Structures are given as structure tokens and as C-alpha cells.
Amino acid sequence: MQNALFVGVSAQTALARELDVIANNMANVSTTGFKGRSARFQEYLMPVASADSFQRQDRRVSYVIDQGTPLDLSQGPVEPDGNALHVAVRGDAFLTVQTPQGLRFTRNGAFELNPQGNLVTSDGYAVQGDGGAITIGQQETGLSIAPDGTISTNLGVRGRIRLVTFADPQALQNEGGNLFSAQAAPQPAGPESRLEPGALERSNVKPVIEMTRLMDVNRTYSMVSSIVSRLDDLRGTAIRRLADVA
């Protein structure tokens, strides 16, 4: 009976974790360039506390283990908006920005120019080019961004937006603000990755699927909670009856 309670609690913990993942996905349905996550679990067979010498051998106890929240790197819908400073990333590459904590990576290409003429994100982080920050003079006109990231004005080429990829993108860590950090060094993006100027990549979260997952998790959590509650009541009844016999 005790094992059954532990198994139920492990299932509730896993379901609560999945609920957090779904809630975060739903909260970012409208976030530009957002990449959703899913929950991954694995069966864990208890390797100890068994006695196989009995006529009826102990059954193995199966728990639930949280195996992480893999990143969904599928392409989100790309919507043109006509803004010359906006870019959508096509492929598996990431944009590079400079933050107070160091270099970070994002798929959010909603750029703008700050008062100093630096190309920045909506949070004010400097977009990185091959040679560092990209600056556009106030007198420059005709700004355009090419699919390879080259930025040009009436004065010529002003820089090229840095696109990078990772050998293991699943190792990227969310840091809030639609940014990722990485322990491994990024690599220059290949020709299969490019920018689509005058457009933005929307979130790749599918609301209908997430709502279906949410209902399924809630239903399963309620079922497991009911089982755990009944087992707890049964244990209490057994203890009281044993006390009466004594």
C-alpha cells in the first residue's frame, strides 16, 4: 500500500511539472519567435527492496521520472509586416544579442533603433553583427536587410546580422525575455538558415493542442489524486482496525 502511495505521488509530481510547461506555452502564444516546450517522462523500476525468494515474488515498483522539457524547434508561422527593421529567422539558426549577463540568443527579430542609432531588441539589447554592435547614423536613409543578414543604407553596407547554430540546441536554457543561454560555443549558421526581411516569426505554440493537453493533464491529475486519497483512507482504516484488535 505504501508503494502505491509513492507511485501516485511521483505521478502527481510529473503531472504538475507538465502543467507548468503547458501554462508557460499558453502564456507565450503571442510572443514573437517563442519556441514551446513539452514534458518528457520515463518509467523507473525500483531496483531495491525486493524479495525474490518468496513463493510469490515481489512485483517491481514502477515510478515516474521527469526526463526534462525538450525544446520544440519547429518553424513558427512567418507573417510579413512591412517593417524594414523586422526579420524572421528561417531554419534552425538564432539571432545573437548582447545583454548585461553576456551574449544571449533569440528568435525574436522585432528590432528597432535606439536614440544612439544602435540596432536593438524591444528590451534594448544590442543586436550583434559579425563585427559587434550595428549602428546606423541618423542621416542615413534607405535601410534594408538582405536574407543573409547584410544591412545596407544609402551609405553602403553597415554590417551583417550574426546568425548562429548549436550542435545540441536542446542544451539551450531559457532565461526569460524570450532569450536563451548556452554553455557550448555557437557556430556560424549555414546557407540553409536565412532571414526574411519585413516579417516576424510568430510563436510555434498551437493553442488547440495545448488546451487539449491541459484538459488531459487535469483529468489525469484528478484521477490520480482520487486514487491516492482512497489509498490513504484505506491505510487509516487498517490502522484503526489493528488498534481495535490489540
Automatic annotation (TrEMBL):
<comment type="similarity">
    <text>Belongs to the flagella basal body rod proteins family.</text>
</comment>
<protein>
    <recommendedName>
        <fullName>Flagellar basal-body rod protein FlgF</fullName>
    </recommendedName>
</protein>
<dbReference type="Pfam" id="PF00460">
    <property type="entry name" value="Flg_bb_rod"/>
</dbReference>
<feature type="domain" description="Flagellar hook protein FlgE/F/G-like D1">
    <location>
        <begin position="88"/>
        <end position="152"/>
    </location>
</feature>
<dbReference type="InterPro" id="IPR037925">
    <property type="entry name" value="FlgE/F/G-like"/>
</dbReference>
<feature type="region of interest" description="Disordered">
    <location>
        <begin position="181"/>
        <end position="201"/>
    </location>
</feature>
<keyword id="KW-0975">Bacterial flagellum</keyword>
<feature type="domain" description="Flagellar basal-body/hook protein C-terminal">
    <location>
        <begin position="197"/>
        <end position="240"/>
    </location>
</feature>
<dbReference type="InterPro" id="IPR010930">
    <property type="entry name" value="Flg_bb/hook_C_dom"/>
</dbReference>
<keyword id="KW-0966">Cell projection</keyword>
<dbReference type="InterPro" id="IPR019776">
    <property type="entry name" value="Flagellar_basal_body_rod_CS"/>
</dbReference>
<dbReference type="Pfam" id="PF22692">
    <property type="entry name" value="LlgE_F_G_D1"/>
</dbReference>
<dbReference type="Pfam" id="PF06429">
    <property type="entry name" value="Flg_bbr_C"/>
</dbReference>
<feature type="domain" description="Flagellar basal body rod protein N-terminal">
    <location>
        <begin position="7"/>
        <end position="35"/>
    </location>
</feature>
<dbReference type="InterPro" id="IPR012836">
    <property type="entry name" value="FlgF"/>
</dbReference>
<keyword id="KW-0969">Cilium</keyword>
<comment type="subunit">
    <text>The basal body constitutes a major portion of the flagellar organelle and consists of five rings (E,L,P,S, and M) mounted on a central rod. The rod consists of about 26 subunits of FlgG in the distal portion, and FlgB, FlgC and FlgF are thought to build up the proximal portion of the rod with about 6 subunits each.</text>
</comment>
<keyword id="KW-0282">Flagellum</keyword>
<dbReference type="InterPro" id="IPR001444">
    <property type="entry name" value="Flag_bb_rod_N"/>
</dbReference>
<dbReference type="InterPro" id="IPR053967">
    <property type="entry name" value="LlgE_F_G-like_D1"/>
</dbReference>
<dbReference type="InterPro" id="IPR020013">
    <property type="entry name" value="Flagellar_FlgE/F/G"/>
</dbReference>
